[in-house]
Amino acid sequence: MKKWMVVAWVALSLSAWATAGEFPGDSLYQIKSKWTDQDGKSVTLGDLSGHPVILSLVYLTCGYLCPTVISEVRALEKLLDPATQARVKIVLVSFDPDHDRPATMKRYQKKRALDPSRWIFLTGKNDAQVRELAATLDFKYQKTGKRDFSHSFLVLALDETGRTLARVDKANQPKDELVAALSVRR
Amino acid sequence: MNWILSFLIFSGNLASGADLKSVPEGTYRPLLAKGKTTPVAAFQIDETAVTNSDFQLFVKSHPEWRRGVVKALFADSKYLHHWRTGVEVGDKSLEKAPVVNVSWFAAKAYCESRQMRLPTVDEWEYLAQFGPESGKGDVKSIILEWYSAPTPEVLPNVRTTFSNRFGVWDVHGLIWEWNYDFNTAFVTGESRGDTALEKSMFCGSGAVGAADPSDYAAFMRFGFRSSLKGNFTVANLGFRCVKEIQK
Q1: Cα-based distances in Å from B25 to A62, A67, B28, B58
Q2: Mutate which of A23, A136, A149 to test chain B, going by most B C-beta atoms within 10 A?
Q3: What's B2-244's CATH class?
């Protein structure tokens, strides 16, 4: 087979795989709902396929734990080797879709100087959409005030097809497992 | 008006006789709110839990929710395992029994197919405080009697325990039921608030923080909910749906 044919075949099968959405049964990308990113673009979780992913759930007006979550994810980002850093997508999904709109997310990203080539903020249409994602991840949250939530802590590593590689459910835990899981996938 | 009419016809067909009952607005005292009451807006709710035959109609028209087809992310391997096949209950005696072995995702999808949703914990707990309409027996003793009995191998039909003042059947005594927001943060112990909440639920001295420390049944329900994951299926866990009342 000629080289160009191989390239074309690979490209075709990759695109077919991506558009058919044939992810494994336990892939997070089985969730088909549409999210909005910090640039106002409509995306599905499956759009992340092909990249290793670090995923967490946050809300941006959060006073205490969320900055901790984001700081922990930043620390994790720094632990990755340059090749993994170049490929990884870091996804923060808001569970406060009423307040975390694209402009808010964009502002936050700029303020904290989070590299826009890999940091993606996502917000949903309503609570039902977020609840669905949270239920697949065993992530618990509850509104406790007008703009306040009680919630779990979660940092998740996903493979290129949206399957969970490793997770950390507590703040201030070692990140070795997440780093190893993300790094072997080069 | 037309769409309302067609919705009524549609939901009537699918729910096969499960009427909606109106529950007026009210308040209840959440277990962990230390005496505070929570307002609950008026809603409509299925008169009974969704039955096996109701759910059979649903999976026939929604193949993605059939056993063997459903994705592992949305239902574990025990999903509808008590049915004879992926689309047939296959046992006449089960038809009017509440459907169980269904995941939260499947229950949610069923309700959404009727333009409804699962009841919130607040709605369900509000409803849970009312005992039999007849006044025979109080709610706590009914519950404790039920909890102390093992789950029967074949679940009884719906409409076999009691109906409350709103005409809603079997709130206690038949099955546990899924809630829309079962994955609230009560007892994980993982975030800033949780640890205190967890303490107030399970530590002896902390139990005085609960609205009614003698409400063993409510403790059981909160504990049970917090142990669930969205794709879990359980042999005595089913659901019913709620319709919001448009203001």
Answers
A1: 31, 38, 10, 30
A2: A136
A3: alpha beta
